[in-house]
Specification:
Length: 366
């Protein structure tokens, strides 16, 4: 049995007629950039997140960069975030000439340690980016309290957390803004690259709309320096079809995560945790093992896809060597990155497949 990390073909088969109708609608309209399909998605996703505004862009990375720029982050400003995240989180900071400051994480949820965040604040700190990693919400109450105390803006990186909840409220509405990625493999994925910024701040939303469209809200009226980061209508159309299914798909992910937890009790591994205050979107199911690399190879040899997210923490990347971090700078992050392994998790995964995966993990680790 070959089991992929994610199976987008089987998802497509279930919604094929709706997808084809949506794509045909775009082709027949010849409205390929922004337009009605994107506007419809922006309104729907804003409602879904419980905020007033959503601005569709061409990737989650662009969402982060444009949001930070619109928030006023400038060269040499410091932005605090975590090191165990996809490079885009800190890459967006660096592209603006600002300095990412990395802090350690909670060992169970892999999200920002609020105490480490507060300790890292200096006179140059202007913002904080908590990451809802693998779909699990960060400790937003504590982070918001600290940020308010020090007059910092809060940008949620919700790229992996579509539909996740913190104390009964969906992520995306806690900070001044939040950024989402709709990369195809995400819980809510497009058929190409796409992203969005959500916010309750109308002025911020307006500035991001300008930035994504060469500094202009209407053609040839360029009010500021911008770039081309517009969402394509085809992606908006696909996301309009998929959004009504998101909660259903997330619930299936939750059931699969529960099955994994039940059937992996015998394995000599650490299972992912879900904090009492949180409802994870379960974008990834991440176990930890001191034999991670060998386990990964063993599973792959048996036709079971497994993947390391992420093998090298960002503070130890050669690109960031000038920041002065060394091995041991963020001990919790570093040990997690040495042990973390993601198992297949997607809504269409079957119980038979999960049992096959868990048997293979138990066989190797017990």
């Amino acid at each position: 049995m070959k089991i992929p990390m994610v199976d987008l073909k089987i998802q497509y088969e279930g919604i094929k007629d709706e997808i084809q109708a949506a794509i045909r609608r775009v082709l027949e309209s010849s409205e390929f950039i922004l337009g009605k399909e994107v506007e419809k998605f922006e309104a729907s996703f804003a409602r879904y997140c419980g905020v007033k505004h959503c601005v569709g862009v061409n990737s989650g990375t662009s969402a982060l960069m444009l949001a930070l720029h619109a928030m006023g982050i400038k060269p040499n400003d410091e932005v605090i975030t975590v090191s165990q995240t996809f490079i885009a989180t800190c890459e967006a900071v660096s592209w603006l000439g600002a300095k990412p400051v990395f802090v350690d994480v909670d060992e169970k949820t892999y999200t920002m340690d609020p105490a480490a965040f507060e300790k890292a604040i200096t006179s140059k700190t202007k913002a904080v980016i908590p990451v809802h990693l693998y779909g699990h919400p960060a400790k937003m109450d504590e982070i918001l309290k600290i940020a308010k105390k020090h007059n910092l803006v809060v940008l949620e990186d919700a790229a992996q957390a579509h539909g996740a909840e913190y104390k009964g409220k969906r992520v995306g509405g806690f900070g001044q803004a939040a950024c989402f990625s709709f990369y195809p493999g995400k819980n809510l994925g497009s058929y190409g690259e796409a992203g969005a910024v959500v916010t309750d701040d109308e002025n911020l939303a307006t500035e991001i709309k300008k930035l994504r469209n060469h500094g202009s809200l209407k053609r040839y009226a360029h009010e500021r320096l911008g770039l081309n980061a517009r969402m394509e209508a085809l992606q908006g159309a696909v996301l309009n079809v998929k959004l009504p299914y998101l909660d259903q798909w997330n619930e299936l992910r939750r059931r699969h995560a529960s099955d994994y937890a039940k059937w992996l009790k015998e394995a000599d591994i650490q299972l992912p945790a879900e904090a009492p205050h949180a409802k994870s979107a379960w974008h990834l199911y991440t176990i930890r093992s001191s034999k991670r690399d060998a386990l990964n190879l063993s599973l792959n040899n048996e036709g079971i896809a497994s993947q390391v997210h992420y093998p090298l923490p960002n503070h130890l990347l050669p690109f960031y060597s000038d920041l002065g971090y060394k091995a041991g700078s963020l001990p919790k992050t570093e040990i997690i990155c040495r042990e973390i392994l993601s198992l297949p998790l997607y809504p269409e995964l079957t119980k038979d497949q999960i049992q096959t995966i868990t048997r293979a993990v138990i066989k190797y680790t017990s």
